[in-house]
Design a protein that fits this description.
Rossmann fold, 41% helix, 7 strands, globular, 8 helices, seven-stranded parallel sheet, alpha/beta
Length: 255
């Protein structure tokens, strides 16, 4: 008789994580590796720390450098993945960026850059991943990274808010079309986490205090707070969960 905890194990699975070099992406890699998965780490920057951690667990880690701002990099990326390990079972679309400026002053470049990485890359990378799963007759897990701003408007981040609202809707569409093909698509919406993206607002003492005062848990999140959610969504334990965006926010959206 199997134990319920066995359904959370990822032994024998290969997880592709974008934006894997640091921050939350690195945290997702650690969590999935600790649950038993080998990791395909993708980033434009240094991934040596992520690779070292994964390999110390006895898991394999293939670090592949790619500029996901360039749509032409996606097909070569998946060709490289097939070459080094045969393909991925799990996709975590974590790579993203944020640009801050008043709505009336927001530039076309800041709009296009954020939308291209946060939303267009999610669509096209997921599309290739899904095609390959279907061609292999394999089940798959797609985990998109949404945001609290998938539910709220925010301020001074118009392209980020639009992109993350799009991620939530795209996640539901993908579930509608892919669930019958054995591919589960869900999203995680992190709240306020201590990352490079939030460094500017954490440096503003008044803004930082206002944020923490509103979070029922009374603190900023850390990558460890996301580990259980990403493992759940990547594992067989969530096989009947489709199209849902799970907020991991210390209670922010409940306030």
């Amino acid at each position: 008789m199997s134990n319920i905890l066995d359904s959370f194990k990822l032994d024998g699975k290969k997880a592709l994580v974008t934006g894997a070099g640091k921050g939350l992406g690195q945290g997702y890699c650690k969590a999935l590796a600790e649950a038993g998965a080998d990791i395909i780490a993708v980033d434009i920057g240094d991934m040596s720390e992520t690779k070292s951690y994964v390999e110390k667990l006895g898991r394999k880690c293939w670090a592949i450098t790619a500029n996901l701002m360039d749509r032409g990099s996606y097909a070569p990326l998946f060709e490289e993945i097939k070459k080094v390990c045969g393909g991925a079972d799990i996709l975590v679309n974590n790579a993203g960026m944020i640009r801050r400026e008043d709505f009336v002053n927001f530039s076309a470049k800041d709009w296009d850059d954020v939308m291209n990485l946060n939303l267009s890359a999610v669509f096209f990378i997921s599309q290739i991943f899904a095609r390959e799963c279907i061609a292999r007759g394999a089940k798959g897990k797609i985990i998109n990274i949404a945001s609290m701003l998938s539910f709220q408007g925010g301020i001074r981040v118009p392209s980020y808010a639009a992109s993350k609202g799009g991620v939530k809707s795209l996640t539901m569409l993908m579930a509608n079309e892919l669930a019958s093909k054995g591919i589960c698509t869900n999203a995680i919406a992190p709240g306020y986490f201590a990352t490079d993206n939030t460094a500017p607002i954490r440096a503003d003492a008044n803004r930082e205090k206002a944020i923490v005062d509103r979070i029922p848990a009374g603190r900023w999140g850390t990558p460890d707070d996301l580990m259980g959610t990403v493992v759940f969504l990547a594992s067989a334990a969530s096989d009947y969960v489709n199209g849902y965006t799970i907020a991991v926010d210390g209670g922010w959206l409940s306030r």
